[in-house]
Amino acid sequence: MKAIKKLLLLFLPLIIIMMMFLMFLGGGVRDGNETPKNNLSSSVEYYRPYVSKIAKLEGMEDYVDLILAVMQVESGGTGSDPMQASEGPFNKKYPQIPNGIKDPHYSIRCGIKELQDCLKRAKVKDASDEGRIRVALGGYNFGNGFIEWIDREKGGRWTLEAAQEFSDIMKGKTGWSVYGDPPYADKVMSYYDALDFISGDGILIPPLKGYTLTSGYGNRPSIGDFHYGVDLDGSYGASIYAPGDAKVYQASSSCPADGGYLGNMCPDGAYAGAGNFIQLKMKYKGKELYILLCHMKDVDVKTGQSIKKGQRIGSQGHSGNSTASHVHMEMHFSTPVIATTEGSVDPEKYIKFK
Fold first, then answer.
1. Is the pLDDT of residue 9 over 60?
2. Which of 28, 43, 135, 184 could form a disulfide with 122 if both were Cys (CB 3.0 to 4.6 A apart)?
3. What pTM, to 2 d.p., does this model score?
4. For helices 184-192 and 130-142, what crossing angle results, to 10°?
5. Residues 128-183: pLDDT tens digits?
6. Which CATH class is domain 42-195?
7. Can you tell me the distance from the alpha carbon of 171 to that of 186, in angstroms, rounded to the nearest whole number?
8. What share of the chain is helix, strand, coil (3-state, %, to 5)?
9. Spatial separation of the C-alpha atoms in residues 318 and 232, rounded to whole Å
10. What is d(CA 51, CA 74) in angstroms, rounded to the nearest whole number?
11. Count of C-beta atoms within a 10 Å radius of residue 204
12. Is the CB of residue 241 less than 8 Å from the CB of residue 311?
């Protein structure tokens, strides 16, 4: 026994060092701006056929994946109230207390109606309107008072800070120690985004689903500069997709996601001012083409990673040298150098923007 103790004491430091080394290799470091993308559990997927059926009856067929993402966060698809709809306004059959509903199918019907009501109140345009979907999810979690408050006080824009502020206000009013779950919208979107993929005609497609082209390529006499790309606005937090099959040439998410301002040169170096960005390298009709997407909120891919056309690669933010949330898209043939006329081309000549 004493011999065993001596051996343990002798090898314990070595064991600790090996464990730390393995943790370093396996764990890595996650940037503070990065939202992990998750897969739905088998318990949630079990309800997909029923959710699809009821969603179609309610005119919510475009939101099936969103409904399932809500279920994943609310319950993981377990229990008799998987949508946690007991305390909601559409439960007319069971006690309006936590887990009062005893029929999972009834819970799903109530939850779909409640989510639909939140989407309408938030004036969500469609299933790609991620900025307003986040507002609607805040309403599902906090109650519809959140939607009215964020529209009135924050210009209708969801941020984690705004959700935390509302929670704190309501805790003060109610005297409760907890009020809602401020990161709820981000949690749901981490599952919704993981299901996200788009398709389109042509070699290259736009990097956003729903968007407005706010600034074109070339000389801008009104502000006296040359714009090396185009600016697109799909709303803060909107998913960004790969315009084509490519390899990630460079990717960075070191800047504050919502910290943009004129003259902000984050990150330092060759990509100064780009904020959180991805630069893709691909072949276009036999030529090397580099595409830069910058001012992002989060970045889902890594340098050297191969990606497919239409794959979600991040989301729209307001980082770096940016006066408002948007995506700057810049294209160069034969050179990765940005903000230069060398190899620079107008994206509108290669991508069919709406």
1. no
2. 135
3. 0.59
4. 130
5. 788 999 999 999 999 989 999 999 999 999 999 999 999 999 999 999 999 999 99
6. mainly alpha
7. 21
8. 35, 20, 45
9. 12
10. 15
11. 22
12. yes
